[in-house]
Amino acid sequence: MKEPIVVLENVHLEREEDKILRNINWTVFPGEHWAIIGQNAAGKTLLLKIIATYLWPTSGSVEVLGEEFGSIELHKLRQKISWISSALEQELPQNQSVIEVVLSGYFSTLRLFDKPTKQIVQRARKLLQLMGLNSHEQQIFETLSVGEKKKGLIVRAMIRKPRLLILDEVCAGLDPIARRRFINSLRRLVHKKSNITILYVTHHLEEIFPEITHVLGLKNGKVAFSGKKQDQLNQKNMNSLFGSKAKLRKKNQTYYLDIF
Known about the structure:
The protein is an alpha/beta fold. It has 2 domains: 1-80 and 164-190 and 199-260, P-loop containing nucleotide triphosphate hydrolases (Rossmann fold, 3-Layer(aba) Sandwich); 91-161, no CATH class. 32% of the residues lie in helices and 28% in strands. The strands form 3 sheets. The chain has a 6-stranded mixed beta sheet, sandwiched between helices. Strands 2-1-4-5 form a 4-stranded antiparallel beta sheet, with helices on one face. Helix 4 (98-106) crosses helix 5 and helix 6 (146-158) runs parallel beside helix 7. The chain is globular.
């Protein structure tokens, strides 16, 4: 069996007297892509901040990409992980060109201060083409549509060839058409970059695209369910997570959750 991408054992997170995460046990293997779902304040983002090395658990064992927390310099591990959230988009200077925003990701800076090699620029252009942004290379980032900005952040995250890509509610603010286009771009990325593992936080089941293989449900800081998507996305689990008025339905390969 291949070495796991993520192993969490009895992970707890407390802030003052509040227990934010409790007894989290979770293993992610190569070839798996996970959706993490749950209501607001369930602990989804904080859980992934631990995995991304930006937060230290109160107790428990964390191993990411074969490295155990406490036995490695976290900044070295962080170079193999990319994280995308709305907070990152707000921090980026918006008056840069699209390709400058992308290339700054290679150096882990908010602005492009260093001169990239020709090979890095070529890689950036290939990724822009993959995400349908090649014609926007010199466009100022702030003039992009919301959906185009999201795609630009994906390219920025991929420029360093991460092994783990964490997406935290990346479709927030997108209208249904833009969301579908963005999801389709993600699907192309998954097929093209088969060596990457995706952890995808969402409130909307329809964003769980077919290439997502597994689902983790969080409720009040605990794992409510975990496993293969087709086994876990059922009416019982949705009622447990979202209440008795939640109605699960599936059309083709897409799941939907209606709240009555």
